[in-house]
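Q: What residues go here?
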């Protein structure tokens, strides 16, 4: 916000009225700096929020990273690598958007996204980790968990779905399990997306008021919203027990979603070794001639063109 000039004077040259006006503007600027006025448009508020990355810059950077992700994909397939990526974080931290940014230009047969629903009665009777192990990557695959076995240390613990003794047992066992995964040759990356209390509240309210996002707002989201510090304690315990040399946690700040996504993708590319494979020059063959083909007189049911 621009401040008024201290040297402004009134039309009669005495400077007093202008000085008084200047002081009023300074006071207004100091009390409203960085805040949108009541009733101001979203665009005006966005202009004041100069710290967030602009869409154009984000899309330019993302395009470059997408090219690298394609190179990574080809290398993983060619060399038979196995990569497992875990995304955890509070509700609204940006897990879904980050995963979409990673996968929107690559093959879903290579980049497999796993987002498991609530366990069935049969799965509840199994060893806890059993339902996750079956989704670990085979050769030439990158598996992304949109929430993972760490549900037990997070939502299940905070919401009281799992007894505390089972949570403590899980925290003791999971480092050993992850060591086994890594020793088997799987590249394991664990990301915690960190969102501030204020930004989470803003995003939840946006979900409630945006018809495109109402499906994202569940009763569980509202319950978790009320238990911010319970989740903080659960996160702290989880880090203390499972942030190991063989499977460390990487924390990404995501109050600015665009910056957060780019930082995570760049980090991912730096932690999965890959090289660009040589490509043959693409040469398109000639199309066949029409010959005796005649288009049929068929009453096609075309989609109505409203746009």
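A:
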């Amino acid at each position: 916000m621009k401040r008024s000039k201290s040297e402004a004077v009134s039309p009669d040259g005495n400077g007093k009225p202008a000085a008084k006006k200047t002081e009023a503007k300074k006071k207004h600027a100091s009390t409203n700096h960085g805040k949108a006025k009541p009733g101001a448009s979203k665009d005006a508020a966005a202009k004041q929020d100069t710290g967030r990355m602009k869409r154009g810059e984000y899309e330019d950077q993302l395009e470059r990273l997408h090219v690298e992700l394609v190179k990574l994909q080809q290398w993983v397939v060619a060399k038979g690598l196995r990569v497992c990526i875990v995304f955890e974080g509070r509700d609204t931290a940006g897990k879904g958007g980050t995963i979409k940014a990673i996968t929107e230009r690559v093959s879903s047969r290579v980049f497999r996204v796993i987002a498991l629903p609530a366990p069935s009665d049969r799965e509840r009777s199994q060893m806890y980790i059993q339902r996750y192990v079956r989704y670990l990557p085979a050769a030439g695959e990158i598996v992304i968990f949109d929430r993972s076995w760490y549900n037990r240390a997070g939502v299940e613990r905070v919401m009281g779905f799992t007894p505390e003794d089972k949570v403590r047992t899980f925290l003791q066992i999971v480092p050993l399990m992850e060591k086994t995964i890594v020793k088997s040759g799987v590249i394991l990356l664990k990301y915690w997306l960190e969102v501030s209390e204020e930004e989470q509240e803003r995003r939840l309210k946006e979900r409630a008021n945006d018809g495109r996002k109402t499906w994202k707002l569940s009763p569980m989201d509202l319950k978790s919203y009320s238990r911010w510090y319970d989740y903080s304690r659960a996160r702290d315990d989880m880090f203390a027990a499972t942030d190991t040399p063989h499977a460390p946690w990487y924390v990404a700040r995501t109050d600015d979603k665009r910056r957060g996504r780019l930082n995570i993708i760049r980090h991912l590319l730096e932690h999965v070794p890959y090289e660009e494979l040589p490509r043959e020059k693409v040469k398109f063959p000639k199309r066949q001639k029409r010959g005796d083909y005649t288009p049929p007189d068929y009453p096609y049911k075309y989609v109505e063109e409203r746009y």
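A: Context that may help when evaluating the design: Confidence is low (pLDDT under 50) at residues 1-48. Residues 45 and 54 are 13 Å apart (CA to CA).
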